[in-house]
Specification:
The complex is a heterodimer of chains A (495) and B (115). The longest helix of chain A has 32 residues. Chain A is built from 20 helices and two strands. In chain A, 76% of the residues lie in helices and 2% in strands. Chain A has one domain. With 115 residues, chain B is an all-alpha fold. Chain B has one domain: Helix Hairpins (Orthogonal Bundle), CATH 1.10.287.3510. In chain B, helix 1 packs antiparallel against helix 2 and helix 2 runs antiparallel to helix 4. The longest helix of chain B is centred in the last third of the chain and has 31 residues. The chains are: A mainly alpha (495), B mainly alpha (115).
């Protein structure tokens, strides 16, 4: 259990160490950042399948701050650190050509990783708020990293909406502290069981749910995402869409609802409605986009709808679908953002109408983007098909065929908008395609190809994670959620 | 009563952050919201005629618990003020850069992103 703290401490230390030592030698920041994220990935792999409590400073649970490692945290840690390792690998050449100041970039990047790792590990509400703010502030700065007018505008919009959400979360935490005089999540859960659910805790729950839904960009709260995610550098877009909205949005929401307040029919139906609205609104808005990354950003909203729909069904099969789709989405959406970054790296544009025939010039990029597109649109045997299938089966099993129908419709529309990307960028050509420019385009450098290939193979292979279904890879995470608050209290407080 | 006033302050901040068109006013609204929450946290630890929560060897425990204020909200508020400072400085920095690019603080004239 001791090295769980390293998942937070290592990136936090390296975030300040890299700018100090990296100024003189050009290659040092790249190497240090990649070694750090590789180390984090190894640490996250080690914590897979293990459980335990880490008490900070040796103070036991209700008094001190604890880190709780269980199946759900381990799954999220694996996703975060896998994608962040691939993103740093991708950044080496990408940043060299398109941006300046790698030192500040890596510093902010590692702060964001530290914040996310902390947020999925912590067992304390105020600590959750602090880690969430570390990750959010780093991401606000990274969205505006290019300092162009559009990027600053997106960053400011994201900052205002994000900090309103954070203030809501802080007020919710303060209300819970005022009501129950404790900040430990398990202790709050046990006090809730003891004292019952009153109006103060209802108000706190509403504030927290609104705050986390804004961080997760579910539909009534999504306005910042389509601006913020395309404006960031491509590896950061992959991090934001691939893991940030899950780690500090979906994870926090699910932990709060399943392990602290306990899932109720009202909350479950709220989740399913949010899911269906996000799913449909996201994909319908995506259809009309001509900016490669903006289209992908709208799809993030839509796919988050699938995930939250799975959690809203609240059956073990629904939870399996939600968790599996969470993993798959982080794989294929990061891959798609990396692809858009490769295309931008070569062609210098994100406008689909200016691209064309990339399949002849960039075989790796177009091959991997084809696999990711098939994956996100749910074509067998790619992973997106299996997770959507599980969610649809879970909806049918829970006697909600209407929801299953919406999920199928969303999937078909997703296929439509991804055939648009494939048609204009890779296989055909757009309206403003310029054959002279096309002559000069070539495949991206080797270091940028590696993350594309790794993720493409994972997209094809991770359908196997469904092996053994409920008892397989996702078993520990599902049982954390289905066992509800009582098991969580017993685990953290030992009573 | 005082909690209601505190919540009113929060709502004023929320109004400023969401309904105003000027970037500086939006920033002020967000700051007011944050301060309302900080004030609420401090009020949670308030105790009339309370004493500072510092224990020593000679402290009489029942008398201490009867009069000492709750130290946790103070620790929380310190953290939250520092986070607020971080956000505020980032916001002001972005606002200055935006002014350099657009020559205005009016958000209705910054509309390059839509759709």
């Amino acid at each position: 259990m001791g090295n769980v703290i390293l998942l937070i401490a290592l990136p936090l230390a390296m975030a300040f160490f890299i700018p100090m030592v990296g100024r003189k030698v050009r290659w040092l920041p790249d190497v240090l950042a990649n070694i750090t994220t590789l180390g984090l990935f190894v640490l996250a792999g080690q914590s897979w399948g293990r459980e335990g409590i880490y008490t900070m400073g040796g103070w036991p649970a209700p008094l001190g701050i604890v880190l709780v490692l269980d199946g759900l945290s381990a799954l999220l840690l694996f996703i975060i650190n896998l994608i962040s390792f691939l993103a740093t690998l991708f950044s080496v050449d990408y940043l060299e050509k398109l941006y300046t100041s790698k030192l500040r970039y890596y510093s902010l990047f590692l702060l964001m990783v530290a914040g996310m790792n902390g947020a999925v590990l912590t067992g304390d509400f105020f600590n959750l708020f602090v880690f969430l703010e570390i990750a959010s502030i780093a991401s606000y700065a990274l969205v505006g990293f290019g300092c162009e007018a559009e990027e600053l505008e997106a960053s400011f919009k994201y900052l205002v909406i994000g900090s309103i959400a954070s203030t809501f979360i802080l007020l919710g935490v303060a209300l819970l502290y005022g009501r129950f005089a404790t900040l430990n999540m398990a202790d709050v859960a046990s006090a809730l069981q003891h004292h019952g659910f009153d109006q103060v805790s209802l108000f706190a729950l509403v504030l927290l749910v609104v705050g986390f839904c804004t961080k997760a960009a579910l539909v009534p709260f999504h306005a910042w995402l389509p601006d913020a995610h395309p404006s960031a550098p491509a590896p950061i877009s992959a991090m934001l869409s691939g893991v940030l909205i899950k780690a500090i949005g979906i994870y926090a929401l699910v932990r709060l609802v399943y392990n602290v307040f306990g899932i109720s029919p009202l909350l479950a139906s709220l989740f399913t409605y949010l899911g269906v609205i996000s799913m449909m609104a996201g994909v319908l808005l995506a259809l009309g986009q001509w900016d490669f990354k903006r289209l992908l950003a709208y799809h993030s909203i839509s796919q988050m709808g699938y995930v939250i729909l799975g959690f809203g069904l609240a059956t073990p099969l629904g939870l399996l679908g939600g968790l599996f789709h969470l993993l798959n989405h982080s794989l294929f959406k990061s891959l798609l953002f990396f692809d858009s970054g490769s295309v931008e790296y070569e062609t210098g544009t994100r406008n689909l109408e200016k691209m064309g025939n990339l399949v002849q010039k960039m075989p790796v990029t177009s091959g991997s983007s084809l696999m990711a597109s098939l994956s996100i649109s749910g074509i067998p045997p790619f992973n997106g098909f299996w997770s959507k299938l599980v969610i649809i089966l879970a909806a049918v099993q829970a006697q909600r065929p209407g929801l299953a129908l919406w999920a199928v419709a969303g999937s078909i529309l997703t296929l439509a908008s991804f055939s648009k990307i494939q048609r204009y960028a890779f296989w055909g050509q757009g309206k403003d395609f310029d054959a002279k420019l096309w002559e000069g385009w070539k495949e991206v450098p080797v270091l940028m190809r590696v993350p594309l290939l790794v993720l493409a193979v994972l997209c094809l292979g991770s359908g196997l994670a469904l092996w053994h279904g409920l008892k397989g890879l996702f078993g520990p995470a599902i049982s954390v959620l289905t066992d509800g608050p009582t098991a969580y209290i017993a685990k953290v407080l030992g009573r | 009563m005082i909690y209601a006033m505190c919540f009113l302050l929060f709502l004023i901040g929320l109004y400023g952050a969401t309904c105003k068109k000027n970037i500086v006013k939006i920033i002020l609204g967000l700051v007011i919201m944050e301060y309302a929450v900080n004030l609420f946290l401090i009020l949670l630890g308030w105790r009339t005629n309370g004493q500072a929560p510092i224990m020593s060897q000679q402290t009489d425990l029942p008398a201490f618990t009867a009069t000492a204020v709750d130290p946790i909200p103070q620790a929380l508020v310190l953290t939250s003020i520092v986070i607020g400072l971080g956000i505020l400085s980032l916001m002001v920095a972005i606002a200055i850069r935006l002014y350099e690019r657009y020559g205005t603080f009016d958000i209705t004239e910054m509309r390059r992103l839509k759709g």
